[in-house]
Amino acid sequence: QVQVVESGGGLVQAGGSLRLSCAASGSIFMIKHMAWYRQAPGKERELVASIPPLGVAYYAGSVKGRYTISRDNARNTVYLQMNNLKPEDTAVYYCNYGSGEYWGQGTQVTVSS
Length: 113
What we know:
- With 113 residues, the chain is mostly beta strands.
- Helices cover 0% and strands 53% of the residues.
- The protein has strands at 2-7, 10-13, 18-26, 34-39, 46-51, 58-59, 67-72, 77-82, 91-97, 102-103, 107-112.
- The strands form two sheets. Strands 2, 4, 5, 6, 9, 10 and 11 form a seven-stranded mixed β-sheet that branches. A four-stranded antiparallel β-sheet has the order 1-3-8-7, with no helix packed on it.
- Strand 5 (46-51) and strand 6 (58-59) form a beta hairpin.
- It is globular.
């Protein structure tokens, strides 16, 4: 079994920054794809950014240029640096490990105008 734990959410004013962290632990035998999703009230969960073990990261158009995803393979940890935050970025952010296999509990990000 794999546990996925996010941290770093909070309340920030528009234009501010937050950094999310996500650590996967447990029965991990190989390095896998990791990603951040978000779900705003009344909306479906959407992919924000993803990063393979080696290679190029993917970003949703709405966050490209403002968010940066990175990872530390030795620690099975992925980060999401979020800059120039907007009220529409408000959502619960979820970490995913292994292309849909394992999910964290989510961390709330609230951006005030």
